[in-house]
Amino acid sequence: MNIMETLARQLTWACANITANLAFIPADKLAWKPGVEAKSALEIVNHCAEVLHRMSRVLGTGALAAATFSAAADLPAAQKLLLASAEQYAAMLRSLPAAELRRGMPFRSREFTVAEVAAMPVADMIWHLGQMAYLQTLLGDGTTHFSDDRGWGTMLREQPEELLQL
């Protein structure tokens, strides 16, 4: 498995779990924030989807690069938006030519490789999954919810029942 396939699987796994966890936030609490500067569950999901759109534009490739971003206003729309954005970003990761991954590009205050910039949203999605789980605990849900009920161990597998092929 190459690095971009690994990143694509991590991304889609994290986004699937963000949307699964979102379903456990009570509907009347989707806009609730634990603090003035904090994001609500709905804002986190919209932020995640928007990051995937924005980073596609930064990289200048993939279906999301030219797409207009529109924030979701409710649970079903937020789940659909994030899952679709994750699938499109994952497809872009899988399509990046190996030679392009080594190319340097300026980003923020320094130079990174294309592979490093493309990987940044993956770490961001995993971090936001933690935020969503924390919001759930603040709202009284003490159960850990995974989209496939198998947990972290299956995130890189092509099929949840099969061992990881390297």
Spatial order of the strands in the main sheet? Answer: 1-2
Strand content: under 5%
Radius of gyration of CA atoms, rounded to a whole number: 16 Å
Distance between the termini: 5 Å
Low-confidence sequence ranges: none
Oligomer: single chain
Task: Give helix % range.
Answer: 40-55%
Query: What's the total count of β strands?
Result: 2
The helix/strand series, from N terminus to C terminus, equals HHHHEEH
Number of domains: 1
Top CATH class: Mainly Alpha
Counted by DSSP, the helix tally is 5
Mean residue pLDDT: 90
CATH architectural type: Up-down Bundle
Could you please say which CATH topology applies here?
Four Helix Bundle (Hemerythrin (Met), subunit A)
Global outline? globular
Largest sheet, strands/sense/barrel: 2 strands, antiparallel
Which structural class best describes the helix and strand composition? mainly alpha
CATH H level: which superfamily?
Answer: dinb family like domain
